[in-house]
Amino acid sequence: MAKTPHDDLFEKSSMTFGEHLEELRVCLFRSVIGIAVGCLIGFIVANSVVRFFQSPLERAMENYYLATALDDFPHLYGEATYEVKQMILNEKQIPEATQIDAGKLAQALQITYPEQFGGIEISPYWYTLGDFLPGGEGQFCWQLAASKEETETARGRCWQLLTEDERQAIKSLNSALSSSAGPLTKEQQTAVLRVLNSLGGNRELHQSPEFAALTGSDAGLAQTFAARVAQLFGQQPPATTDTVGSLRTQLAEKFDPEQSRRLNKLLLARVFPSALRTARVNVLPVFAWRPVKIKFQSLSAEEPFMIWMKAGFITGLVIASPFVFYQIWIFVAAGLYPREKNYVFLYLPISIGLFFGGASLAFAFVFDPVLNFLFTFNKGMNAEFEPRIGEWLSFVLILPLGFGISFQLPLVMLFLNRIGVASLDLMVQQWRVAILVICVVSMVLTPADPISMILMAVPLCLLYLVGLLMCRFMPRGRNPFDEAYEP
Question: Are 260 and 123 in contact (CB under 8 A)?
Fold first, then answer.
């Protein structure tokens, strides 16, 4: 005849059913108090915790910016020399392209340091390499040399105003460019700019009859198609301007060498439109070095406060977790026989160690590979990453917590085995299903990337083996359900 359990399952237990409920109430109350105290401490140190957990992202972003700067340097500035690489990798400085107004710089130096820089003469209307269109140096030399036989054109007049040395320089440059497809050397660039600045400083250029009919690009603006469209819709059309005409009038009344150079620069841009840019500020293209600086964005006024609350609450849970685990094991031990109560001193350190081991693994070994993997897609798509503090800290605070909880797997397996839900043989036979469940859980508890899922699934598979060993070799307590009676 089959055996049935006694009516009172707690007949030989160390506590009655009512005493179990009272012990549960006390343990829950103590756990809530512990969590409250932990959260209070967490709110005090929340800002420090946030800054601490920002360090993996700052480190990953710094490496990303440095690697990107090193890869982009040859395309933007030329060869990355040994010194450049050391500046980027060791000094953690990245180059940043910028342009300096040479005229304003010279003026500021002359005013501030008259004794040292009072003799500097830099006109804001001198030509620089930035005034050329792509390939414009060659176009300018070719067009200027081709117009030497033209006597009544503006280009021909430019050729006539050159000195003999300048003409020889243009011919040599034209020959060199025709025989070589490579970029101009520094000496050749200097020679082209010398010729252009010589023409720009020659007042005879804008006084020549060949240039008298030329107007600026802004002349008659009110008569353009855009102005007529504006009038059609009842809008105020832009005022008619004529910078070239205004400069001619000013120079006719009183000669100014700077305004003369400005007028010549405007006219030359009309004569050589395929070689020279339209009028622009005299700037010098350079690049400056700046240290890598990581910034976190906040898109709303209340977001930092919510982050502080979340960080304080999660920190409080982590701080209170040993006490909460202790209360759980106290409740379990209360229903055990005296010789079984010592198990709490065995299982509690294991539970706490597994929790903090999982959280530490996430922080020390998971963040960097995951971030480096995700940043490769930003680099491939040429997308700038500006981290939002709310989204990032939600990820960085929850992930260690998920790792810590999931690392309780061996104890869960031991618990299920001891209460008779899953036998050791069943867990061994169904290891394939267990691995599938581990992969699904890892996918749910981690961000949407394969790296973090793998980094969680692999340790959990090893912990599954640890759980099997614990079920096999850990001490086994008495189970009251095993005691039956004969009717």
Answer: no
- Nearest alpha carbon to residue 291 among 94, 138, 477: 94
Q: Both ends of the chain: CA-CA distance in Å?
A: 9
Under the banding of pLDDT at 50, 70 and 90, the label for residue 372 is: confident
**425: amino acid identity, one letter:** D
Which is higher by pLDDT, 326 or 46? Answer: 46
Amino acid at 179: S
pLDDT of residue 1 exceeding 50:
no
Query: Is the pLDDT at 62 greater than 80, yes or no?
Result: yes
Find out whether 42 and 315 touch, Cβ atoms under 8 Å: yes
**165 strand-pairing partners:** none
Q: Is 485 helix (H, G, I), strand (E, B) or coil?
A: strand
CA distances from 274 to 88, 181, 279 (A): 38, 18, 14
d(CA 77, CA 202): 34
- Three-class SS of residue 284? strand
Any idea where the domains of the chain sit in the sequence?
4-67+303-482, 101-291
Token output for 54: 């920002």
Non-local CB neighbours of 378 within 8 Å, separated by 6+ positions: 64, 384, 385
Q: Which residues contact 372 (CB under 8 A, 6 or more apart)?
A: 60, 63, 64
Handedness of CA 52, 56, 62, 63 (dihedral sign): positive
Q: What is the DSSP letter of 132?
A: B
Q: Compute the radius of gyration of the chain from its Cα atoms.
A: 40
CA–CA separation, 407 and 404 (whole Å) = 5
pLDDT of residue 159: 92
What's the CA gap between 193 and 284, in Å, rounded?
Answer: 13
Place of tokens 């960097």: 368
**Could you give the CA distance from residue 154 to residue 144 in angstroms, rounded to a whole number?**
10
Collapsed DSSP state (helix, strand, coil) of residue 423 = coil
Q: Which two tokens stand for residue 449?
A: 């990337």
Sort 459 into a burial class: Cβ within 10 Å, 0-12 / 13-18 / 19+: buried
Confidence of residue 33 (pLDDT cuts 50, 70, 90): very high
Q: Model-level pTM? A: 0.61
Q: What does the pLDDT average to over 298-311?
A: 83
Residue corresponding to tokens 């491939």: 380
Instruction: Give the model's pLDDT for residue 11.
Output: 52
Give me the pLDDT at residue 249, please.
87
What pLDDT sits at residue 301?
A: 79
Distance (Å, whole) CA 120 – CA 412 = 81
> In the predicted model, is pLDDT for residue 483 greater than 50?
no
Q: For residue 286, list its beta bridge partners.
A: 98
Report how far residue 39's alpha carbon sits from residue 319's, in angstroms, rounded to the nearest whole number: 8
